[in-house]
UniProtKB/TrEMBL annotation:
Composition bias, Basic and acidic residues: 8-17
Organism of this sequence: Cellulomonas flavigena (strain ATCC 482 / DSM 20109 / BCRC 11376 / JCM 18109 / NBRC 3775 / NCIMB 8073 / NRS 134)
Cupin type-2 domain: residues covered: 55-122
Residue ranges, annotated region (Disordered): 1-22
InterPro entries from the UniProt entry: Cupin_2 (IPR013096), Flavonoid_dioxygenase-like (IPR052538), RmlC-like_jellyroll (IPR014710), RmlC_Cupin_sf (IPR011051)
Stored SUPFAM superfamilies: RmlC-like cupins
Pfam families xref list: Cupin_2 (PF07883)
Name of the protein in question: Cupin 2 conserved barrel domain protein
Domain of life: Bacteria
Amino acid sequence: MIPAAARTDTRGNDVTEPHQGAGPVVIPAEQLRLPGGRTLRFEGKDHGSGVSFFLVISNPGEGPALHRHPYTETWSVLEGEATIRIGDEDVVAHAGDTTVVPPDTWHAFTNTGDGDLRMMCIHASPVMLQDDHPAP
């Protein structure tokens, strides 16, 4: 086995990727599901991956508050409609659309469709780092 080199992110957090062996691994959705919800959270560091993601499944009107990350976040809308705030601009994305948020940019989204929003939110980091926007 080749040990992973120890690395830290810009905040000093250990982001060393563990070695997971030589075979493919299937991670059951129930291991990734957030408590009390339908959204899945995959943190790459825990599984030997260099990326992390949320598979968001939300009801109309739902979405996270303004926040930012020190890396890019790429969103792919799989089903429904999302109104996405990126900095001072709002964009509307539908099934099949992709949006990229630059590092350190305040952003949020809301399900503005009539049904479920299913969206993959890919974090370009093996660990999720987030700053929440201060309340007004």
